[in-house]
């Protein structure tokens, strides 16, 4: 993992990717984007991405808790 991967900022392409994945998760789970559950999902998604995971399906899987 490069220092760029551990950086706390994201480039435009990364923001677009994370936003797209986030929207997919919310739609698949029927979660309101303005609710606390959406905030939790977003935080987990960013954390998993920052840990080095780049595969879209793995990102989705790892940021969802069974109760979500």
Structure description:
This protein is mainly alpha-helical and 68 residues long. The chain has one domain (3-62). The chain is built from four helices and no strands. It has helices spanning 3-6, 12-29, 36-50, 56-62. The longest helix has 18 residues, at 12-29. It is globular, with a radius of gyration of 12 Å. The termini are far apart. The mean pLDDT is 89.
- Major sheet details: none
Number of domains: 1
Oligomer kind: single chain
Helix-residue proportion = 55-70%
Q: What is the general shape?
A: globular
Rg, rounded, reads: 12 Å
Can you describe this structure in just a few lines?
This protein has 4 helices and no strands.
Topology diagram in text:
Elements: H1 3-6, H2 12-29, H3 36-50, H4 56-62
Provide tags for this entry.
68 residues, mainly alpha, 4 helices
